[in-house]
Amino acid sequence: MLSRRGAGCVNMPLLTVEDLSVRFPARRGLFRRPALLQAVTNVSFQLDPGEILGLVGESGSGKTTIGHCVLGLTEPSAGRIQFRSQDISRLSGTTLQQFRRAAQPVFQDPFGSLDPRMRVEEILAEPLAIHRLARTRAAARARVATLMDEVGLVSALASRLPHQLSGGQRQRVGIARALACDPVLLIADEPVSALDVSIAAQVTNLLIALQRRRHLAMILIAHDLATVCYAADRVMVLYLGRIMEIASAKEIFSAPRHPYTQALMAAVPEPDTGLAASRILLDGDLPSPLAPPSGCVFRTRCRHAEPACAETIPPLRELSPGHVAACLRAEEAVVRQGAAGRAQFVSG
Amino acid sequence: MNRSLLSVEDFSLSYGAVPALHQVSIRIARGESLVIVGESGSGKSSLGLAVMRLLPRTARMTTGTIRFLASDGTSHELTTTDATILQRLRGKEIGMIFQEPMTSLNPVYRIGDQITEAIRFHEALPRTAARDRAVALLAHLGIAEPERRMAAFPHELSGGLRQRVVIAIALVCNPSLLIADEPTTALDVTVQAQILDLLKRLRGERGMALLFVTHHLGVAREIADRILVLYAGRAVEEGPAAAVIAHPLHPYTRALLQSVPRLGMNKDEMTLPAIGGAVPDPAQVPHGCAFAPRCPSFRSGLCDAAPPPVTTFGENRSVRCFRAAELAA
Ligand SMILES: Nc1ncnc2c1ncn2[C@@H]1O[C@H](COP(=O)(O)OP(=O)(O)O)[C@@H](O)[C@H]1O
Ligand SMILES: Nc1ncnc2c1ncn2[C@@H]1O[C@H](COP(=O)(O)OP(=O)(O)O)[C@@H](O)[C@H]1O
Ligand code: SF4
Ligand SMILES: [Mg+2]
Ligand SMILES: [Mg+2]
Fold first, then answer.
1. Could you give the number of structural domains in chain B?
2. A122 reaches B (C-beta below 8 A)
3. Which among B161, B165, B187, B190 is the top mutation candidate for probing chain A, defined by the most A β-carbons within 10 Å of its own β-carbon?
4. B11 C-alpha vs ligand 1 centroid, how far in Å?
5. Which pTM value belongs to this model?
6. Is residue A305 part of a domain?
7. Is B87 a domain residue?
8. Mean pLDDT, rounded, for A298-312
9. ipTM value of the model?
10. Are A268 and A226 spatial neighbours (Cβ–Cβ below 8 Å)?
11. Scanning every residue of chain B, which has its alpha carbon at the shortest distance from the alpha carbon of A57?
12. How distant is the Cα of B47 from the closest Cα of chain A, in angstroms?
């Protein structure tokens, strides 16, 4: 850790999320009293400049909500989000403007986020105008050309409308728009999920190239664990709004310690090996977020659950440097062996 | 004589003047599972819909036949057979499920009523008996508390449960062929694994044939006996699933296979092998090989001169590529 940040160096984390909780009002049925839906519970993590943190978990696990909180689009019910040591809920005026520029979203469906009547060049010039980043029209045009080039869009596409682009091209426009204000943080929410595998690989490669070239930090939300492990430096696994495990991408793959991570991994259908033969088929669906299970929220679908799991909320414990998991049994041999399931399968 | 359960011969289709499928042929034996793989826009859904004769009015069949062998031994040409026979075959002999389960469910009816109605549509059963059958079917499909679920409306169920309900409806009358168009694409991987497991189990139990459409070769591998790869409306490779995946012969199949990120890959060690470019606009498919502009094995003067012929390898593999023999070696 010390060596990464440099001893005595002032390199602070870019983003610090502390005890983030988000509750939404939810109605249970028509006439019953309103309940609170706990979308995110006590989530804490840090992100270094230039780091890619992957967020995975089934739908409903709170990934998008966390991303929205970091962008300041959703107000946390509790907890604190600091960007360069400043609480983002306290920003106003110029510092708020700076933050808005510095943290940019990339969406899953660029179609939904691009104005269908605007040409590519207009879409890309808009943030430059909003944030007054180009003094003259010529400067704006030059900047748009550079952006298009950076994301691999040929200049002939500048005058196209979104529906005249392929899915991959639209996502490149979405990325170029996010880059227009020279951000330091991208929140990419399922940026490749709607694309064909071949095109998804292009866009994933592009995101990594940009991250390297611009030293961008990124929260990369994706439901494909293989993509996340490939692209991210660290991976955070979420279930029902709680952190189950955080580790380096390499360790998440080679030594997952939470039974949920192991189950997610085993469910990836790989062309060469298929689903892990010894796979842990998760039964049933996600429990209702309105009535999460007591103790460990994963226990109702966990093959290692024992009575204690219903009693105690497992704390996030550090199992090795930088590797934390919230499972009471993470150290036990049965769980650790489960960890080897996929890796064994891949090699055998 | 051809006794395939389903045989599509030389089938071509256009939407208006824009071609979508080119002389595609598929055969599915009883109990066999054929998976159609390809990027979006390759014509996978059009093929499934053509078999069900559910294509939109703008679709025009330009060549070919689609023959289906009914359980009573009669053979039907689905593109021309009359509507009453088709109606009987659909549902009773051929079931279909779509990517988005809501397209097959009526949002304002309880799912129990929808399954019960589906049963009674095909069989003269009293209501209560049909209901019992529906409950038993839901239980058989791994749905917990089936009695309670019967009363739910579609929107009250998760995506995975909805897809199970759609499968239940498709299966009520024991079809001999199930057409499944990307039934797991919109689901989480965990739920996808459950549904794939379920379909495998049902095939085993019922000897049901499957025409399964997916863009994901990992999913294809799970469920396929044979794989057919479509590119820009053309069948470019076909063969036994294991062989196609272990030794893809068409450059497109190879590229598609490589572009799937595998667990354990890491950006510090490699760049993802993407396929450059994009699927051609169907109105502007190149004159030679449709894949030529994206193909790493492209050879000028050969691949752009004429459409490549089909080359066969052994009894059951075929490839549409000029360089297939060379690349297979
Ligand atoms: N605006 C909202 N109002 C009510 N509930 C919401 C809202 N946004 C999200 N939720 C709920 O919060 C939970 C987490 O959702 P989300 O963050 O979208 O998860 P993910 O992105 O992992 O699929 C889900 O149960 C979802 O239904
Ligand atoms: N209703 C339609 N009208 C016009 N063109 C269509 C229609 N449906 C599909 N197409 C076109 O036909 C081609 C094949 O589409 P489709 O069968 O949906 O492919 P896939 O399922 O492989 O994505 C595409 O070029 C698509 O744009
Ligand atoms: S025919 Fe030529 S361009 Fe087409 S796939 Fe084969 S090598 Fe590639
Ligand atoms: Mg989301
Ligand atoms: Mg389709």
1. 1
2. no
3. B190
4. 45
5. 0.91
6. yes
7. yes
8. 94
9. 0.88
10. yes
11. B188
12. 19
Q: Least CB-CB distance to A58: which of B190, B255, B263?
A: B190
- Confidence band of A134 (pLDDT split at 50, 70, 90): confident
Judged by CB atoms closer than 8 Å, whether chains meet at B264 and A285 is answered as: no
Q: What pLDDT sits at residue A277?
A: 58
Instruction: Write out pLDDT tens, residues A1-18.
Output: 334 444 444 578 999 999
Nearest CB to A196: which of B144, B215, B263?
B215
Alpha-carbon span A190 to B180, nearest angstrom? 25
| Structural domain boundaries enclosing B215 | 6-93+175-328
Asked if B274 and A202 come within 8 Å (Cβ–Cβ), the reply is yes
Spatial strand order of the sheet with A78-83 comes to: A34-47, A15-27, A78-83, A86-87
* Residue A283 domain boundaries: 254-348
Kindly identify which residue of chain B lies nearest to residue A347, measuring between CA atoms: B264
Residue B67 inside a domain? The answer is yes
How many other CB atoms are there within 10 angstroms of residue A199's CB atom?
Answer: 25
Coil, helix or strand for A75? Answer: coil
Nearest-atom index, ligand 1, CA of A67:
17
Among residues B294, B288, B256, the alpha carbon closest in space to that of B272 is found at B256
Ligand 3 and B131: CB distance under 6 A: no
How many beta-carbon contacts under 8 Å exist across A and B? 134
Could you tell me the distance, in angstroms and rounded to a whole number, from the CA of residue A64 to the centre of ligand 4?
A: 4
Helix A167-179 and helix A137-150, axial crossing angle in degrees, nearest 10: 130
Question: Which of ligand 1's atoms lies nearest the C-alpha of A66?
Answer: 17
Tell me how far apart the alpha carbons of residues B237 and B123 are, in angstroms, rounded to a whole number: 41
With CA atoms as reference, report the closest residue to A264 among A60, A63, A57, A64.
Answer: A57
Q: Is residue B147 part of a domain?
A: no
Closest by CA to B212, choosing from B33, B68, B66, is B33
Work out whether the CA dihedral B82, B88, B90, B93 comes out positive or negative.
negative
Q: Is the pLDDT of residue A346 over 60?
A: no
- Whether A146 maps to a domain, the answer reads no
| Cβ of B295 less than 6 Å from ligand 3 | yes
Asked whether A95 and A163 are in contact (CB, 8 A), the reply is no
Among B299, B311, B326, B327, which is best to mutate for testing ligand 3, by the most ligand atoms less than 8 A from CB? B299
Does residue A274 sit within a domain? yes
- Cβ contact B189–A223 (<8 Å): yes
- Domain count across chain A: 1
Q: Is position B119 within any domain?
A: no
* Ordered alpha helix ranges (H), B27-150: 44-52, 83-92, 111-122, 127-140, 146-150
Cβ proximity of B190 and A263 under 8 Å: yes
List the single residue in A168, A272, A279 with the smallest CB-CB distance to B193.
A279
Nearest to B8 by CA among B225, B228, B176: B228
Q: Which residue has the tokens 């169907």?
A: B282
Average per-residue pLDDT in chain B? 92
Characterize the bridge pairing of strands B317-320 and B234-240: antiparallel
